[in-house]
Amino acid sequence: MNDVIAQLQDIAQDAKAWPFAEARALAARMEKIGAKDTVLFETGYGPSGLPHIGTFGEVVRTTMVRHAYETLTGQATKLVCFSDDMDGFRKVPTNIPNQEMMANYIDMPLTKVPDPFGTAPSYGMHNNLRLQAFLDGFGFAYEFKSATECYTNGDFDTTLIRVLEHYDAIMAIMLPTLGPERQATYSPFFPICPDTGRVLQAKVVGQNPAAGTISYIDPATGDVRETEVTGGKCKLQWKCDWAMRWVALGVDYEMSGKDLIDSVTQSSKIARALGSTPPAGLSYELFLDANGEKISKSKGNGLSVEDWLRYGSPESLALFMYGQPKRAKRLHFDVIPKTVDEYYQHLDKISTQEDAALLENPVWHIHSGAPSLSVLPVSFTLLLNLAAVCHAEAPDIVWGYVTDYAPDVSPASHPELDRMIGYAVNYYQDLVRPQKIYRLPNATEQSHLQALKHALGDLPDHASGEEIQSAVYAVGKAAEYENLRDWFKCLYEVLLGQTEGPRMGSFFALYGRDKSVQLIDDALAGRLSANASAAS
User: Is residue 151 situated within a structural domain?
Assistant: First the structure.
């Protein structure tokens, strides 16, 4: 076993997969700062809005780097998922209920804001639980930390005093980055109002490191008040807070979005001012919605984790996160089927790959090692098209076709396929059925479809998908299409009611040749377009 580990460590030194590149950069940092018993990875979460996939993507990717680092070095690691839930509630997101009630809690710490959904003691806790439910469901190994608990329990007290002691140095870092108006009122510390509990953006007029206190002007009364900076009586401004957390927890690695590059730069300077080395990390590109716009928690314009997991597996979601983290990618419903099939393509390869290729396979990074093999007898895209054509209202309808195609397959023998069929039915019902538009074939296309119908009937009873595909090709060539893509587009639009579709030979084999012939007859008779119109 030790020889196997040593061999993987040697191969990892040259592995091109991006998690290994990150792991090598972290290893270089650890060599400079000295040995630690446990290397600490962190992901940060701001629970001011409902969680979205980008939030979870950070945890998935960090876990991939963590495993790559363990493989590379053999060192022990830990992942902390930190929620900045003591942050002030700045605005009411547009995608949550009880808007008027929530507006009464502006500037309150998120863990003091009521939960508009009525499921948790606070809004911050509601979003924290949403986050943890996903992480637990995916099987991540992590330790959850709450800013509210760390501040109020005294976990940050020692570092908060260091911030107070280096107050002038931190101000010298931050003030040049601010406009004149903000410079006049900026302080690293937000006092928590002892009367209202609100996070105050108050002007600090004095610091007493020996006493561990600051003096500030109360925005409500204009009076000068004094408060301790420890024990949860103050909250740090964002960039200083991030640096303080790195120092207090001893964070060695944290990645963040491209929109936080400036924050990383300033927080790193503050961490150095506090006598610490900032963590290594990756700056990743942000996800875009279907229109190419940045996904926003407050707008709610991205897919939620629940959205993805209704139509695709957690593994496919992790694969989407794995691919090219430094490149902006559009995140919308149409990417789910393609990503599900790509996952199984990578999984199919993993059992035959040598170690060097294994470490480049996304599935190895998704599962923190090589998983057990699970191959689908049909692709997810094919299941989607089958669900659409047979108007599946439940998985057993699709299973009826699958067992005709592969008699030895059942939900009990192939639970993975059963799971995919469930996703396919959901996808069809929610996203495909409302968009289906069957068109009538023109006179020329009618003759081509008649020819296809006869070609299917002339095939042997047990013709394979490849043999059926060859027959489909032959009909298209005989019809003298300049581009055979136009022939397949005709089949998709007339028979399936969509502009794109599966490999038709595989589809006809799965759907059954008799039913496929009937499908062509229905299209020629106008029944498909008529039924679609009646359903709408």
Answer: no
